Queue: 2 jobs
Job 1
Amino acid sequence: MSHFRADVRQRAEELVALYPRRRSAMLPMLHLAQEQDGYVTDGAIEEIAELTGTTPAEVRGTAAFYDMFHLEPVGRYVVGVCTNVACLLAGGEDLLEHASRTLGCAVGGTSEDGLFTLEETECLADCNIAPVVQVNHRYVRTTTPEALDQLVTDLRAGRLDADVPPHGTLIRVRRNGGLRVEREELSAERAAARAARDARAATEAK
Amino acid sequence: MTDQTTTSVTITLNGRPVAAQPGELLIEAAARAGDYIPRFCYHPRMEPVGVCRMCLVEVEGPRGATLQPACYIRVNDGMVVDTGSDRVKKAQDGVLEFLLANHPLDCPVCDKGGECPLQDQALAHGSGETRFIEEKRHFEKPISIGPLVLLDRERCIQCSRCTRFAAEVAGDAQIDFAGRGDLIEVAPSPEHPFDSVFSGNTVQICPVGALTAKPYRFTARPWDLEQVESTCTTCAVGCRVAVQSSGNRLTRVLGVDSDPVNHGWLCDKGRFTLDSVDGNEESTDPLSPATRIATPLVRRDGSLEPATWGEALAEAARLLGAAAATEGGVGAIGGAALTNEGAYAWGRLVREALGSDHLDAQYGDGLDPVLVQALPAATIDEAASARVIVNLAGDLRETLPVLFLRLRAPLAAGRGALIEMGAGTSSLAPLARVSLPTRPGEADRVAAALCGDAVDHTLTLGEFDLAEARSLLGEGEGVVVVLGRSNLAEDPAVVESAARRLAQRFPAARFLVGLRRANVRGALDMGLAPRLAPGRRLREGGRDALAQLAALREGRQRAVLVLGGCLLGNVMDAEGAREALERADVVVVTGHGGATLQHADVVLPAAVSYERYGTVTNLEGRVTALAPKLVAPGSAWNDVAIAAELAHALGHPLDLDSIEAAAREIERTTGYPALSVLTDPHVEGVLAGRGDRVERRPLDPMAFPGIRSTDTVGLASFAGAVAQPDAPGAGRLGEPSLADVTTRPVSVPPPDAYALGLVVDHRLYDRGIAMTGSPALADQVAPATLGLGRVELDRLGLAEGDTVSVRSARGAADLTVALDAGLVRGVARLAANSRDAAGVDVVRALVDADATITPIRLETR
Amino acid sequence: MASLDAPRIVSSRSEFADSFTLARYLATGGYEGLRKALTMFPEAVAAEVDAASLLGRGGAGFPAGRKWSMLRKSPVSYLVVNGDESEPATFKDHYLVERDPHQLVEGVIIAAYALQVTQAFIFLRGEFALGLERVQQAVNDAYDHGALGRKIFGSDFSLDIVVHPGAGAYICGEETSLIEALEGKRGFPRIKPPFFPAVTGLYGEPTVVNNVETMSNLPWIVTHGGAAFAALGAGRSAGTRLFALSGRVNRPGVYEIEMVKNTFRDLIYDPALGGGVVDDRPVRAFIPGGVSAPWFGPEQLDLPLGQDEVGAQGSMLGSGSIVVMDDTTCPVRAAWRITKFFSRESCGQCTPCREGSGWLERIMYRLEHGGGRAEDVDLLLDLCDNIAPGLTWPPAQTTICVLGPSIPSSIKSAITMFRDDFLAHAHHGGCPHD
Ligand SMILES: Cc1cc2nc3c(=O)[nH]c(=O)nc-3n(C[C@H](O)[C@H](O)[C@H](O)COP(=O)(O)O)c2cc1C
Ligand code: SF4
Ligand code: FES
């Protein structure tokens, strides 16, 4: 029995087909799993192991290496505040502390209503609008305590649902179907091209 | 085997020229030249990864000397290396200081204390005072990561030896790193504990006390230990081991790196069932495998009573002697667990003192002994370096675990090709180049197809697969066939004729016969088999084990000498055997109790496993020495002594007054290298018949912590005690040929579309004495399940855990089903000696030992 | 005065709000470079890139043309684009993938053609949710447009591009670690040798890895010729470059300016660029090329923005990101935060990096937050020396990858430039600025 919903399973299988080796689909598939469940569950780990030809320990070990994957449940909105050097110079630490007060949870923790998880992040590569805040990996460009409070209010009211989909990053990233280039067919083509190139090089050398 | 033709290169090591093999790792070349470079993550039996950075040395390059990991850099001609410069020292001291920064200071309570490479390095190089005043990293104290292994994450130095072993060597990555940076930790997946049958190896190679074995934990301190080097007798691979004890208690078994055999690895059964040797002190019931038989027993008024040796020998001599005087009167069954010397002595006793030819070390679950001797033999090394391996032995991980590791290594590295000929039970199957589905009864016909005969239409071979297999085989050069008894519910003649056929068609092919029991090969070599005399020579006649049991049942044989206490646990038809023993006079020679003793009239207590001195022979024919670490309890004797005394009591002295005397006689009369192996402390093993002798080598203390740090005793203590045979080569080993093999025609009934072919096979964690008598492992024996492939489950609408009624021509049983993903279609699988929930022996209920195959039908309930 | 008359090469569409769409791209000369390239022999395309003297923009500054030509002899199997951009204060690839994804895709197709590769991967940092959407959309559109897939624009050349998300790990920017992540593993950098993925890369096959910005330059180079590119800048540093400016400046942002012709002072102070330091305070120090680079002080403000020029002064232009610290900045705090970053991001394989970063971070934390000792300063330097022996630039290393020896950069810089601040911290029992 599949842990993935039918549509997620289908996307997972599409992902496997995209790569020359199935284990390569590991990271996008973990993102998908997180999209479905909010975090990487044991059930998803089993299924990903099967789909990628690995063991559950390897899937778990791989997931645990990456900051974006959560192995424990998190809030519907994961709020990340950067405190790395550019943001530090722009007051990132204060903003993080403020966010912790507003959300009523410690850094790394989840708010009582289970809606928000607060994280201190490393540089998010948007340093011109510092301190940088992301919610579910969408830049919200909120740099002041007041703006952050407004953001939290808007998120609670569901006003930003279109911009900030719950969980996951890949929800709107999908390869158009049927575009795959057949690898086997191509190898002959490539070989011919290389032979032509070598022939040119040979004539040039003369 | 190293290629002698490779020319060597010269490197400059610390200012002097040193010869090295091209492409050799610098760390190895330097060690050979006497410059030992410190290390943690490097292990000579795994691919280098260069992560601990302890082995940094200066290597001259285009941009001057740079620090490079010696475990990863390969030497090339003209390389200039400095292993002791100030820069190297500073870098190595720096790494050591970093490793110790977060390391807990709990050496006094750590199992590894006293044999810890990190501790040794710290003492050798460390400054003694720490500059680290921060709070150390904290983890919850030891967590259980599997049934046998505990992990103390605070002590881990992230060398990745354990995770690499699991993934790379065992091929089952049940543990892996999780996390990142200094929070990285070894972890299994929560749902899947680390229950690999090789888990103990990770404990052995952990260079700190992070991984500890539950059975060993806190049982001893290294400085209280003494060890001998010996051979594991749990199965026929013959892994070399260091056997350690504290006082007269066995505490630990560690794998020794034997180049031709085990490369330092052991399976968990071999490593951890040492606790079954001593037996349970409380247990006195002679019918329990947990009981150590330490005094002779004689049946009086229906019950076994302790007796003196004199009384027991007299009674045994009376019963056996009387039987010997009757027609067809007496025979012996068992002996695969004896030493070569013991087997030889008992063989002489039966043949000379009892005048019988009925001898059989196998229990009807083996192969034709003459065929075993006649097939052109391959060594483990030859199989591991074969161009093509053909597996006809089923799941080697379950039967000969370390052979599985040895064969898996080249296949996983992409060297050699595997042709899998089986019912889908093999753990090597995922690495197979070609899989030829072979259902019960089909092996000979599949072999015929491989030989180029017309393909039987009832087979389910893929056309391309068969063509590829044939082309891989070529004319048989570089082909090694691993032969075994992969299905006990199938007449052995099926696989025997397959092997014979392959041997005739491909004369260049070699065979590694995977008989499973400890010294079964040695017992056959010593003539404990019908048609074989000591030294691989042919002789006439004799009943095998099953024929003896039948004769006993039918009153044609009156008495039986049972060599080893587990007869009833080993024959397929235990009920029939019970009936046979009930009618017979039974003398049992054993170290442990067991159900067989219910029928014994006399029980003679023998020394077992690590109490014994002598030689054993592994499946490839390599003879190695057993060194005793323990004194046998009570008045148990060694087998040579028991046989000699009993022969004396029978009035036919054997003139074997010591184990060495037996070894000398073996070597003198047959050329079998028993005495030379036994008495030469330099030799690790000799391949019988080929003379190929392996010298004992020093072990890298970092690769084998716990062995080098322990005092070795007893290794050389027997050296020189006995003179070499007067005339070396006086005896010569016999060489039976395929022409000597008597073919038994076998007819396989046509397939029945509604039936499944039953495979009954041995599992590592079985119901034998070692497992059931071992507190550490007993609870790992799985309850009986009927394995079915996915197709079969779906077809029958079954889910794992459902119960089905199983019916065969012989009988019926109710069994729980389990998914056995690899099984080919039309096959079901059951473990030998399985018990259902009510304790009923389901194999016996279903399998007729005389039938060619065992078709079964399932009914869902 | 800054020299701003060089053409905008990679940021030419910045004034358009819809710069990321295919329509806008085609309307502004999009895919013309590719069409032109397809009329040339692949090696001629590579020769243009070689002539352009395009230095890799990922941090190491290795010439793209040379990297490709190393592979002429053995065919390349895969092209991998590095869009992991996680070096703190670097945000120019973020700009490119969100604002001009087609330019990147076109660059990748051109490179693949030059290398005769049929499979390319664009690895993007997982946190770039929008960037991933836009690049995937661009790939989908390029397929529909005939610029990707079988027989591109009717030529004999075919290519597939897979967009691959990262998942939050700085180390995956290191090319061998990136390849591991692409193989579905944890991002452990591979041990060297081999020194280049060109020898054994993805799936053990020869692989070229180039940065997003490096790729984005290709459409222009092919359209205008390598010589036109090489005519910009000076010496080895040809062309323009995206500089990401952040910290205590009035106008932080991404600026494309000509290399060498401008100095750090130009970038920080020109009203069209950084617009000066906040509140007109003095520059105390600045990081010239990402946090792995040693710091500079006011005396280096007039150094030209060129790879060799910066290298000669003991630092690097690296990822092209400049962080400005003024006299309100506590250098100990800045260095501590950078050390904390490395300690969080060390992959954990190598002992010196894993244990060293954590230890250094804890000492730095004590100094900044109380509990520091004067002797900690020398301890810091000695521990740094155990990670990068000699503390020279470029650093010697005891580790597998250069993340390890990057850790000491900020600590050593801060101690060398501001030792008194460290001692004041020790003395004061914490940060005197707080
Ligand atoms: C720790 C570390 C992080 C790196 N991060 C990045 C990165 O985020 N993006 C990038 O393009 N290159 C990064 N690099 C450099 C890459 O290894 C590689 O040199 C580069 O992608 C090659 O592309 P280029 O030649 O086009 O510059 C990093 C290197 C190291 C050692
Ligand atoms: S230097 Fe650090 S980041 Fe690089 S491989 Fe080693 S531990 Fe990993
Ligand atoms: S790095 Fe060579 S032994 Fe660990």
Note: Chain B touches chain C through 37 residues (CB under 8 Å).
Job 2
Amino acid sequence: MAAVASWWPFWASKAGIGTVNLLVAVSFAATAAVLYEDPEQHNSARAIALAAAFYLTSWWWAWPAEWQWGPLPLVSFLFGYLWFMFGGMALLRYPDPRLVLRYERIFFVALTSWIAGLKLLLALVSRPEWAGFSPRAWWPALFPDHGLFGVVTAVFNSGLVVFTLGLLGLLLLKIRRVRGLELLDAAPAVVAAGVVAVCGGIYLTARVIELSVEVQDTLRIVTAVAALVTPLAFLTAVLRRQFARTAVADFVPRVARSLTAGEVQDELQRTLQDPTLRLWCWRSEQRDYIDASGNTSRPAADADRWLVTIQSGEGELLAATDMRGSLRRHRSLVESVLDAAGLALENQAKLDEVLASRARLNEAELTARYRIGRDLHDGAQQILMAAKTKLAIARMRASADDGARAAIDEARVDLNSAVEEIRDLARGHYPTLLRNEGLTAALMDRVEHLDFSVKLQVTEKRFRPTIEENLYFVVSEALTNVVRHAEATTAAVTIALADDEIVVEIGDDGRGGAAAGRGSGLSGMADRVHLLGGRFQLDSAPGRGTNISARIPCA
Amino acid sequence: MRVTIADDHRPFAEGLAAWLAELGIEVLRIACDANELLAFVAEDPPDVVIVDICMPPTRTDEGLQAAEALDASHPDVGVLVISTYSETGWATRLLRRRQRGVGYLLKNSVDNVAVLRDALDRVRAGGVVIDPEIAANLVTQRTVALQLESLTKREREVLRVLAEGRSNAGIARVLGIAARTVENHVSNIFAKLNVVNVNDGNPRVLAVLELQRAEGRSPHRQ
């Protein structure tokens, strides 16, 4: 309303520029109001409101003479151009609440001094009507000199052109400096400031080189229209911030799928548009942090960086992140993103716990198997062997004709069966050969007495005991399945190393149709492979044999 | 014949000692580990030592290490290693370390009087012995890619007896055929298996054992 009122007289005479100026003032005021809603942008809102106010002030020369009361014309003359200063400052620093760099601050101090100082000098050497105000306006005209006024005006305007070029330079530097979300925020404002500065610069140049009044008026309107871009720029920036916030919605399902701290870090970098962001996971047992590559390190305390911790739902420390300091302005966005990351990390920790307990169970199972296998080998098996030597002595001493030898020979047959059974039992539980001689020897021993031929191709390379042992039981169980269900005549077992992966293939030419969950032990085999971090695949179409393949990382 | 035993499984070692005594073979001492064996041999060298492969402290291949040590200190003492397992890897390792007077017998075979006597006699005489069961498995072996399809039935028999460590004359005697015929068979076998024909004894057995291991283990060859 104030704008309309202050404008009315001028509007009546020059409707075109009046409308434009009204729009500029109203949209600036609206922008200030919108920005003021964001607590981080109060300073920007104030600067924009001041720019709007000074913009209006700068047009008071167009008021009718009876309105030009007291010192108002002088205020308009001295400070009107400050709209350029405040607007430029708001746009240059946005979205920061203040100017970050020293030379930027120096620039605006110099601009303010230039405007206030030279305008005061102009006022001293002029009469109000020379500046387009009412001749009756209050004016400190100490040494009115028309010639001097003209020269100083030209100097003043030339200086403003230089400042305009300077502002363009600062804007370019800013675009080159900012990164990530900040660029997203700043770009529209910088572009708007650039447009206004270029138009204003052309207008001022036209005044310096004294082009015709019509050209000057047109350029003045063009500049005013260009100023309309500014609110649009802020609106765009606000909208883009909203978009950045909706990126959190995409972030949540993506981060929930990530399996490692490294993947969580990648997602955080992408969503917060900060490739320098680092994530450190807190290990409560060791009371230290490890980074995404698993190295023990500490988040560095650096003034340019923003260090934020991530807590679980129960408030336990999960991790710390370190990101660009500029992200502080997106506090609510960052907090939402880190909450989601916290959930993902918490789930990972729980999954790790489950995996660790599964690994411990597996370890216990293997140890128990080893113990039984060793006991069978060192205990029962050796005693049976000893018994065999004693029967041999008995047979030697028995006479051939009274049937004693025949009875002893029958006992020896039984004893040999017992030896075989114990051997099979030991093989099934844990062949001691496996630990000392490796997979090849153990598997050769395993297949020796099967009644179908098995083609073994097993790499000589030794792996971690857990890998070798679980692989042995996978193959052993698969062969047991072949014996029990497949009715196969041949089987093939391949264990090879390909690109840091152990590739296991077990195939037979039996009747196929194997499926997990029918007491076939298939799910147990799959469990073992998964426990080793590998992939398990079963291919068993009826009539086409059974093929099992597993790929296991052997790091 | 004088024998020293090394096996930490006491019931078996004592059973074996009694059995050897029954066969008229003198058992000097029973050692519980490789070090004790070496001390006993140094004290009173026997004709042959019978050594379990897996002995304390690690139960991995102490018997094989003892065989190697004896090869250096007492080359004339025959070494017959015994094991529960038919591990051809152990057999090849043993044959690489000792050229002569060496044998590998399954514990399951020692109650067979013919096999035990034959093994002890041949090892004492400086020959090479592989348990007949291992040799038979080698030839009937369905677990490896040995190219046996090209061998005739007779050639397979010859290969089996050859793998037991016997000389051409020994093969002829066991199979009841002429020594010249055996020679022909052997050169045919080696030609078919694509192995350079080697003379009698250790290198020939080793060639056959390694043939199985190499073919069976290599993931690159079919």
Note: The two ends of chain B are 47 Å apart (CA to CA).
